[in-house]
Amino acid sequence: MKSMATLPALFFCMLIAVTCTALADDVGCxxxxxKLLSPxxxxxxxxxxxxxVSGVTCHISQARKGGWGSVLGLTxxxxxxSIACRQTGPITLPDKLPDxxxxxxxxxxxxxxxxxxxxxxxxxxxxxxxxxVSTKVVEGSPQNSISTxxxxxxxxx
Length: 157
What we know:
Largest sheet: 4 strands, antiparallel
Number of strands: 8
Helix content: 10-25%
Structural class: mainly beta
Strand order of the largest sheet: 1-2-3-4
Mean pLDDT: 77
Shape: elongated
Low-confidence stretches: 1-20
């Protein structure tokens, strides 16, 4: 009986986790390795807006493995990515912006591997810092990439 009461709480927590991270729009992909009889390896660029800080857009490029396993969702994408975030409008910071928060997550393997983007706020320098990191440890340390956006007035205001 006790475990049944935790199911709604678990569902609610999962719903909050999904709504707090941004969804990415695919911008385009470039084939990087030709495969004769199966899908090619690619590098794809996606864009997402910070879900809590209006006026910031990030673009992330990720290597994606081709082959027939990719069609079935069984391949593990390599931990190679890059991120660039820019001010694309007036930046509005919420009243209580956490020092660190997950703003984007994308599954890159059938077995628990993800690329995540965490926003950090450098209050001393009034700068938003976006850190892209792989959740799977590669050769002793996680792959990562960083981009910063100084919080500045927009359009002569």
